[in-house]
Structure formats: C-alpha cells, structure tokens
C-alpha cells in the first residue's frame, strides 16, 4: 500500500497511489456463516464516475448479519466484502467525477442518486433507477466487474450493497457518496449512513410524526433509538419504548423515550398494556426488531381508526405474519420501500447542521449502539376505517 505523506490544505495527507492498485487488509467472507478472514486484497483504481475511499470508521449492522448467515440464497455471492455503514476520506476519483475530490470527508450511502431519473425527481421516494441498493448486485454498475481481487491469484471479490466497507479501501459509485463537513468526527458520522437515517427517516418521512403525537417503539437498538430521537425532535408528547432488555432503557431515556415497557413484566399482551396506557392506542408504532410476533403487537398497539405502524426490522425470507382483514386492516395498507431520509446530500447536510447546532442529542451519538437492526424494506399499515 502506498505510504501517506504530503499534507494538503484540507488536512488530508496526499498519497502516491492515485491510479495504482492498492494492496490493503480486508475482512473477506468466503461462505455462509464462515469466519471472516482478515487478508490482504487488491483494490483497483476507480473507473468512470467512481471514487476510491479510505475507510476511517465502519460499523456493523443487522443487514451485514443477514448477509453473513445468508438468509436468502438468491443473495449469495462469495467471496465477498460486507459492510455498508461507514465514513472515510476520498483517496482518488475516476473520470467524470466533478463534485468530489481527493481529501474530501464523506459518508457512503447504499441508495445512491443520479439526480436525473424519474425516481430522483420525485418527492415520494429516495430510490434511484440506476443507483438504488440491490442485494443481488455484487459488481460495479459501469462495467459489471469487481474492483476487489485476492492478492495471490487475482480472484474477484464481490461487492455488497454498493459500499463494502469492511476493508481499508473501497471503490464506490460517486452517486453513492455524500460529502460532509470535515469538522464532523468521522468515528461518529458512520451512523448517518444507516441507523440514524433509517430511524429518523421513518419518523419524519413515512410516519410524519406531528407535535403532540403518541409513539411506541418496539426494539431499542440503533434504529429504534433513532426513531425515538426523530419523534422527540418532531414534538411527540409520549414515546413508549418496548424492549426485553432493561439496560436499553438508559440510552432510550437520553434519546427521548418517556415511558418503558418490558414485556417480561406483564402477563397480558404488550398491545393491551399500551392501549391502556394511551386510552386506545398510540398514533404511531415502529417495529424495529425483525420479529413477526413483535410486528403483530406493534400493529395492535395503534389507535383504531388512524393508527399507523411502520415496519423497519429485517424479517427472514420465509416468515409470514397473519393479519385478518376484518379485524385489522379495515381499509387496506401500503408498502413503502426505502422511504428513509429522502434525498442523500440535502438531508445529510440538514442532519449535520441540526446536530451540531445543538437542536438534538445527536451531538453524543455514542448513545446509539450501531450493531443492531437495519431496514431494507418498510411496511406501513394504515388502520383507517373504510367508508
């Protein structure tokens, strides 16, 4: 690996690796549930519209766990470098990249945006026709090849969710990179790439929590805490945290949770407890546990007539949740995939500004444990009565 030297004006140490193959360490997964192997890999230079990034910090998310245990066989692609929640510094850029340059501090996003397609121009989604996350894709979009290779033998190593951050260097589409303020600490900014944007986006964009609303959050992992924070910032009057681990209530209180329910402490179903606490049910419930039984409790905890349940947890492919139409749906529901922080560049800058101006507790992001659940798909049920 080329040595870093020569400090530039933005504080980044320039290097002599531009346009060259970099040899670095990576955690490579060679098969389902196998131990990650720390080994040297070759990272090739970025091609047209791509960037190569030095990963400074990366965290583990539940989606990485799902890929490791290979819940869905159609997603299998080995060897592979996982990881999608990270922060780093641009090492070099490929042809045609105009908005990023060497030394920029960045956060990768797995749902990239071209800015020109019908999806990017819509306010209803943050999907992009070309750069959306696709768990079936394990190569670069431009040429259908990988940028990772084994050091000995040159075997291709597959990419993961447009990012692959369990490596010292990675190559991404420039559309999947957001430039951030260099004053923001990179060891905390990786949280914006996944956990915070999922949870806060669920509260702001999907549920659109209003001032005075009542909220129940099922599962107080990283995403659940971010939901609570998003609801708090929106002015929710009651935020109920539900978890079987009482130790999570400490961080939950910091992030805005006002009341706690531990299912182990009650003989009655949780939804009955919550409906009694709120005189009929909460306005919004968020399922952040990836468990269909919890999903049912979250749904039944909402108020009849207008309650809304937002599903963020990852559920195994073969799991099914039974909803009886007459008792539950009463007018139908909607499926809203990937509606989190709706537009990467704009929303990331807003979150950073809001955090560092002291309007939220995000200044101490260590309260969010970034090793739990990640949403790849969210289901919104509306409990509106049919006419």
TrEMBL record:
Cofactor: Zn(2+)
Domain of life the protein comes from: Eukaryota
InterPro entries: ADH-like_C, ADH-like_N, ADH_Zn_CS, GroES-like_sf, NAD(P)-bd_dom_sf
Reaction(s) this enzyme catalyzes, per UniProt: a secondary alcohol + NAD(+) = a ketone + NADH + H(+); a primary alcohol + NAD(+) = an aldehyde + NADH + H(+)
Cellular component GO terms held in the UniProt record: cytosol
Entry's Gene Ontology BP terms: formaldehyde catabolic process
Subunit structure: Homodimer.
UniProt name for this protein: Alcohol dehydrogenase-like 3
């Amino acid at each position: 690996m080329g040595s870093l030297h020569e400090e530039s004006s933005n504080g980044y140490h320039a290097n002599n690796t531009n346009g060259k193959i970099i040899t670095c360490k990576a955690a490579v997964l060679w098969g389902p549930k196998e131990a990650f192997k720390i080994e040297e890999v070759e990272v090739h230079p970025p091609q047209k519209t791509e960037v190569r990034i030095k990963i400074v910090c990366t965290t583990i998310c539940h989606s990485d766990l799902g890929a490791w245990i290979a819940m869905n066989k159609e997603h299998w692609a080995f060897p592979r470098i996982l990881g999608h929640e990270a922060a780093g510094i641009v090492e070099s850029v490929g042809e045609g990249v105009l908005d990023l340059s060497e030394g920029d501090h960045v956060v990768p996003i797995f749902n990239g945006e071209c800015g020109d397609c019908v999806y990017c121009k819509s306010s209803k989604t943050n999907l992009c026709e070309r750069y959306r996350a696709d768990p079936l894709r394990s190569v670069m979009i431009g040429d259908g090849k990988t940028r990772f290779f084994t050091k000995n033998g040159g075997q291709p190593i597959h990419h993961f969710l447009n990012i692959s951050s369990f490596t010292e260097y990675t190559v991404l589409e420039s559309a999947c990179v957001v430039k951030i303020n260099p004053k923001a600490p990179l060891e905390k900014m990786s949280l914006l790439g996944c956990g915070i944007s999922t949870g806060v986006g669920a509260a702001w964009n999907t549920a659109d929590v209003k001032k005075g609303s009542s909220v129940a959050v099922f599962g107080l992992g990283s995403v659940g805490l971010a939901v609570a924070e998003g609801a708090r910032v929106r002015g929710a009057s009651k935020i109920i945290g539900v978890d079987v681990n009482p130790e999570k209530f400490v961080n939950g209180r910091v992030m805005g949770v006002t009341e706690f329910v531990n299912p182990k402490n009650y003989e009655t179903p949780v939804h009955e407890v919550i409906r009694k606490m709120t005189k009929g049910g909460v306005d919004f419930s968020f399922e952040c546990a990836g468990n269909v039984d919890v999903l049912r409790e979250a749904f039944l905890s909402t108020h009849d007539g207008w309650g809304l349940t937002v599903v963020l947890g990852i559920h195994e492919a073969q799991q099914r949740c039974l909803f009886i139409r007459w008792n539950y749906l009463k007018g139908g529901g909607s499926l809203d995939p990937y509606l989190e922080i709706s537009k990467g560049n704009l929303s990331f800058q807003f979150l950073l500004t809001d955090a560092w101006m002291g309007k939220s507790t995000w200044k101490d992001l260590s309260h969010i444990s970034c090793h739990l659940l990640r949403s790849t798909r969210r289901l919104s049920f509306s409990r509106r009565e049919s006419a």
